[in-house]
Amino acid sequence: MAPKSDSAEGIVLNFVNEQNRPLNSQNAADSLQKFNLKKAAVQKALDNLADSGKISFKEYGKQKIYVARQDQFDIPNNEELNQMKEENTKLQQLLDEQKKAIAGVEGEIKALQSNLTLEEVQAKQVKLGKEVKQMEEKLIKLRQGVTLVSPEERQAVEKMYMDTVNQWRRRKRMFKDIWDAITENSPKNLNEFKEELGIEYDEDVGVSLQSYGDLMQYGKKRARAH
């Protein structure tokens, strides 16, 4: 006689048959906690079911392993197995298609989320309008010959520029004196010696101290003309 489905043995029997895999009492007790069954009750139910022949079991040392009786299940033949394989392949293809469709929808959602809302577009338009207006006002001043740089700022920049050029000139002279002293009696080819030491002249990198000096003098003349 089969145990009642809502009894401890009935619940355990249904669980073992549904799992259809080797289980010990701890596996079953952990999974059946939702039925408020304690481990002792699960163990007792498993033993009773095994003794009555409703489930199978094997002992490995002190541990018992329980499994559903296999003679209660319909075992498919080769034709049925092949049909199941084909259905599984079709289901897998359908699953892949569904995954692709879901990925496409998620991509569209992300694209929509990345777009600006109407309020954000309007706020951005206002901000850009202010920036354009500021640039137009600056352009008008430039066209009218209005000086946008104060005399103090101009003088500070010119002084920094002149100091830098003068420092360049002093260091260039110092290098020449040291270089001449080192190479005065050297038998080496000076160009090869320079490359060996990794030294580059201004001309090697396309700059000229003279051009920067001339620019400084031009700036002074232009300032006097104003």
From TrEMBL:
UniProtKB keywords = Coiled coil, DNA recombination, Meiosis, Nucleus
Q: Where in the cell is it found?
A: Nucleus
For the Leucine zipper with capping helix domain, which residue ranges apply? Answer: 149-206
One GO term (biological process)? meiotic cell cycle
Q: Which family does it belong to?
A: Belongs to the HOP2 family.
Species whose genome carries this gene: Forsythia ovata
Instruction: List where this protein forms a coiled coil.
Output: 77-138
Q: Which InterPro entries match?
A: Hop2_WH_dom, LZ3wCH, WH-like_DNA-bd_sf
Q: Where is the Homologous-pairing protein 2 winged helix domain?
A: 8-68
Instruction: Name one matching Pfam family.
Output: WHD_TBPIP
Broad class of where this protein is predominantly found: nucleus
Q: What is this protein called?
A: Homologous-pairing protein 2 homolog
Q: Which GO terms describe its cellular component?
A: nucleus
